[in-house]
Predict the 3D structure of the following.
Amino acid sequence: MKARILTDAERIDWLRLARSEGVGPVTFFELLKRFGTAEAALKALPALVSRSKRLGKIHGPREAEAEIRNLEKMGGRLLAAVDPEFSPALKALDPPPPVLTAIGDIGLLARPACAIVGSRNASAAGMQVAHKLAAGLGEAGYVIASGLARGIDAAAHRGGLASGTIAVLAGGIDHIYPPEHDQLYAEIAEKGLLLAENAAGVPPTSRDFPRRNRIVTGLSLGVVVVEAAMGSGSLISARTAAEQNREVMAVPGSPLDPRARGVNDLIRNGATLVENADHVREVLDPVRGSALQRERFSEREEQAFNARPAATFAPAPTETLDRIRTLLSATPVHFDLLLAHSGASAGEFSAALVELELGGDAMTLPGGYVASIPA
């Protein structure tokens, strides 16, 4: 379906499908592709998981309705990826997050954004740089996106408060982490925008932080890394941004400071060296609002949301399921490699992956990768 306002019933179906066990973003859009609507996919789920030893729970309509009511009481709303207000940049991801909860100024999603991330254990100088970068970019019309973490994230949010900042939370929209950022959280809710992929009330787990970082970079035209030790989460965000075809920039630091080793390594490997907001603008301004950028987002939106006729359910052959289970391991491998070794047709392979994820045997990952889930 093209971007449009969902009916109340359709919105509940989108939320139910997104919150059902085993339905990650990849499987969500594969089910939409296969069955045409969230309603049809929900009706097919019992048959899809019936052969699994680990039957996943299908999210009920009362739970979905209660989540939406509670979110509205908090002053928020549920955004589906098909909504007109949904970030065009996020829609261009493969796949986008199916649903997000939001509190604050949703209009910020329509503006160009720049992500600023870095060390939690940041230096005073690093936080000053992040604050100045955010303030300068905000004056130039950019929204500042980050993850509400200690250190660089918090400094970037504070620098962008006056002009617009988006904080993406790893847990539910009501879960303030770290707790000492309660005042900053309240200010962003009032002047900026809070986003979360998880349902309200859900505390973050270790696997939620990479998903949060993917949204932070996906919202943005580019990411600036200010202080990052080797192996830090900020370097993972930079790699994610590069995979998303976003611009990657880094502020250099002293080779004597371990917090600079990661950013200096990024620069050695091709990231653009930036020291102030003007340097960042030299990178992002040519991309901002360009016809190429609009076409890329529009093309992805059409691919993801064009209406398709509902499919007739045809379970994957048992031998295909068993073969793929054998091929899978905890190490993620690309779909194309699995398909080549499975001996299945593309249609059988796709159906098998959906069933394996719904049954808790496999986990599909952004970028076309899949891994097994230990028993």
